[in-house]
Amino acid sequence: MRFREAAIPASPHAEPIRTPRLDLLPLRVEHAEEMAAVLSDPALHTFIGGAPLDPAALRARYDRLTAGSPDPAVSWCNWVLRLREAPAPLTGTVQATLTDRATTAEIAWVIGTPWQGRGLASEAARGLVDRLRTRGVRTVIAHIHPDHHASAAVAAAAGLTPTGVERDGEVRWRRQLR
Question: pLDDT grade, residue 159 (50/70/90)?
Fold first, then answer.
């Protein structure tokens, strides 16, 4: 199949995505205050490392993320997840790092502890992968700790399968899109 450059946006960026229960909203620095509370459980960092950030540190991180990658060959797309049921809280994040002329995306997700176990991460990951497919992405990958069974279930729900390749103690999952 011949590569059609016109099908790939020149500068991919996060656009709103709607799923049955969630609005995936492009990340803004203003989300830091609410997201600091969403991400405050130290257990969320068991498999990804680090520790919860306070609002000021998260604001600085979001400022860097929204400024974009310093590498022009890489695009950072980040979303916060807003549950549409009242009172419509932010519940987590999804992200995609696009490389290879925006044909490959490495994705990741995190859902705040109070909203886990409701299928929100799977719903958000499926919505993200569907959007990436419509934007010309051909390969989606995720790196998941082998003991993180919930995250493996999210990857499987988004159609990714484990490859057996490990990087930094995590298994690479992959899906080829048509």
Answer: very high
